[in-house]
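Researcher: Next entry in the queue.
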Amino acid sequence: MASQHPTIGAALAAASLLALAGCSSSPKQVASVAAPTFPTVQQQEEVKAEPPPPALAEAGSARDVWMLRSALNVAALGCQRSGDRNIGPRYNAMLKQHDTLFTQAYVAETARYRTAHGARWQTVQDREATQLYNRYASHPDLARYCAEADTISADALRVTTEDFARFAAAALPRLEAPAFVPKPAPVVAAAAAAKQPVARKKA
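Model: Structure for this entry, 203 residues:
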């Protein structure tokens, strides 16, 4: 029996070595995940507003052009009742002749409202456009307004696009003054004259 112990001991030793070898085997490799990459954010360059076209270079030119368009639009619709039926065809011809200028004026006006009113620009622009149309449509002296609009609509077809903004600036007061510039009442004028000192004759 004593001769079997070395064999058993050797077997146990061999088994222990195999077990240790199994425990010391390298673990299974886990697939590595690459770190997420983020796109490089480039700083955007400041967008510069395009300079106005030469025909609208002067301050307020775009507004004058668009206001005259609105005034003649009202006249084209409202003055037919007073017999001025030529304004409508002339107005349409003016839109066609100066189409690019009116588009540029609208773009410039929209940019002005965006800058001045931010997110509310569309509401403000629509409200002021309605007020402008109502202002011209409620002209107290329609016959005079239509007569001026008739002349202006004819002159607008003879003006070059380059000169149209200056033409509009000069034409607008002719349409607005009779309606919106109050005239002094005769009684007030007489009272003012009565307050003037009267020069006395020397003896």
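Model: Residues 60-180 form one domain.
Researcher: Noted, moving on.
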